[in-house]
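ok new one. same drill as before - structure tokens go in, u give me an amino acid for every spot. 156 of them this time. try not to just spam alanines like last time pls lmao
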């Protein structure tokens, strides 16, 4: 699918990842096109799914979300529709911000944000442990984050 993109498209994607609020005029100046074809290219990237959405990156600690964890989850595959049952439940839990189907001993890796250890305990006791298809889980507390890059690498 990346074969559909030319150098200008990649430049647009890079610039929009760096600043999703860049004006069309400034974007057009950066890529060397007039505003109308620049806007047309951006719309095409949006319509074709290369640009999924635009977001503000918020500081979770300033919001009081001081506990961040990864939870490795192993499912009990003795039940029908195990994965779908798990995903349906996970999608209802607001504290889970990411859910990845992974290889290895765990089946899923969850990223969780909560205010404090009590909130984490409630999450585990009242939600995660009550998902019927969860066999085991293991928590890895995030002590610090040295790299958190919201930008997808475009050059390899």
């Amino acid at each position: 699918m990346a074969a559909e993109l030319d150098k200008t498209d990649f430049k647009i994607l890079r610039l929009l990842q760096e600043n999703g609020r860049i004006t069309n005029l400034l974007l057009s100046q950066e890529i060397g096109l007039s505003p109308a074809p620049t806007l047309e290219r951006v719309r095409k990237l949006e319509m074709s799914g290369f640009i999924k959405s635009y977001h503000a990156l918020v500081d979770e600690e300033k919001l009081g979300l001081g506990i961040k964890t990864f939870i490795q989850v192993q499912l009990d595959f003795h039940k029908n529709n195990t994965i779908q049952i798990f995903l349906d439940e996970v999608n209802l839990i607001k504290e889970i911000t990411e859910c990845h189907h992974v290889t290895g001993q765990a089946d899923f890796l969850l990223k969780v944000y909560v205010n404090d250890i009590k909130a984490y305990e409630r999450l585990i006791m009242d939600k995660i442990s009550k998902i019927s298809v969860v066999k085991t889980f293991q928590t890895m507390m995030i002590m610090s984050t040295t790299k958190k890059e919201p930008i997808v690498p475009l050059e390899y």
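The chain has two domains: 2-47, 67-141. and btw The first strand starts at residue 67 and ends at 75.
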